[in-house]
Structures are given as structure tokens and as C-alpha cells.
Write a structure and sequence with these properties.
Blueprint (H helix, E strand, L loop, with lengths): L2 H24 L4 H11 L10 H4 L3 H4 L7 H14 L12 H24 L4 H4 L10 H22 L3 H6 L11
Helix pairs in contact: 1-2, 1-8, 2-5, 2-8, 5-6, 5-8, 6-8
């Protein structure tokens, strides 16, 4: 297949997951449920649809506390489900901590840092501060809808990287000195 055809197909898939996530959010799913359900429906992660129940408590910044954005949390969860350590006990105890830092955290560090570059922060409270007095407003929902759309595309983008490609990503802010 030609490269331009692959790029077009990739853009089509990114648009598809965005469309699914926005459709779910508009139909009453929360931010976290919308992202995970879209990735499952698009076949980007191998999870049964019932796993969306695991996302429910992450909405509104973890149980509507305003902490880490639920959409971001599901971008991490989906990538971790695909590329995380399936059995850490198979790694020698002495190297478990260094192995996860040297390999796995690179992908997740990049996802979070890219999300922050796109949105200015990673917490629901800060992302929705302009709507604090009117959480149920259509304006807040539209704002979150945009974040959900870009975040599900971010999750999808990193899901397309192989395990080995993820291991080669550079660390961003907070962990730049790790090799």
C-alpha cells in the first residue's frame, strides 16, 4: 500500500474515533466513558464493551472531584491495556521499577505532556474553570466535547505506535533526565 493511502486511512480512523466519542458524549456518556467506548467500538483496543463500566468513575476529573481529566485518564488506560506489562511478576524483582521507567512510562509521559500542550493543563477543575458556576451549561459541554474529541485522537495516535516505538520515545517534562 502506498504511504499516502496509509496516511489517509490513518486520518479516517482518527476521525472515526473522534466521531464515536462525540456521539457517545452527546448521548449522555461522561468524558471517560466516551473516550474508552469510542476506542473499543473502533477496534483500537481489544476490550469487551462492558469495560466502559470501569471508566464511569473517572468522569469529571475522577468522580467529579476536578482532578485528572477523565478523557486523559482513559487515553492512558487504553494505551496501558494495549502495551502495559501483562505480568510484572515475570520481571526480576530487582529490575521491576527501572524496567517500567525505562520502557513503559515513556508512552504515557508523552501522552500527558502532549495533552497539556494542547489544553494548558491536565485537571478537570482547571480545564472547566470558566464554567465552575454553571457545570450543566451547554457551553461547558461544548468545551468538554472538544477536549474529548482531541483526546480520543491522541489516544488513538499512541495506540498506533508499536511497543518498541513506545520504548524509544523521549521523556518530556518532569522526566527529561531519564535515559
Amino acid at each position: 500500500m502506498k504511504r499516502d493511502v496509509l496516511i489517509t486511512k490513518e486520518k479516517d480512523q482518527q476521525q472515526l474515533v473522534k466521531d464515536y466519542a462525540e456521539e457517545f458524549f452527546k448521548s449522555g456518556f461522561n468524558c471517560a466513558e466516551s473516550v474508552l467506548a469510542a476506542l473499543i467500538k473502533a477496534g483500537a483496543v481489544n476490550m469487551p464493551p462492558e469495560m466502559v463500566a470501569a471508566a464511569t468513575g473517572f468522569g469529571g476529573g475522577l468522580g467529579l472531584t476536578g482532578n485528572t481529566c477523565g478523557a486523559l485518564a482513559m487515553a492512558i488506560l487504553a494505551n496501558s491495556a494495549q502495551y502495559g506489562r501483562p505480568d510484572p511478576t515475570q520481571i526480576p524483582v530487582a529490575s521491576r521499577h527501572t524496567e517500567v521507567s525505562a520502557k513503559h512510562y515513556r508512552r504515557y509521559n508523552n501522552i500527558v505532556n502532549e495533552f497539556i500542550r494542547q489544553n494548558g493543563c491536565a485537571t478537570c477543575k482547571e480545564l472547566t474553570a470558566a464554567y465552575a458556576d454553571n457545570w450543566g451549561s451547554p457551553e461547558r459541554r461544548d468545551h468538554c466535547l472538544k477536549i474529548i474529541g482531541t483526546t480520543v485522537q491522541l489516544a488513538y495516535k499512541y495506540l498506533q505506535l508499536s511497543r518498541e516505538e513506545g520504548y524509544q520515545l523521549p521523556y518530556g517534562k518532569n522526566l527529561k533526565n531519564l535515559k
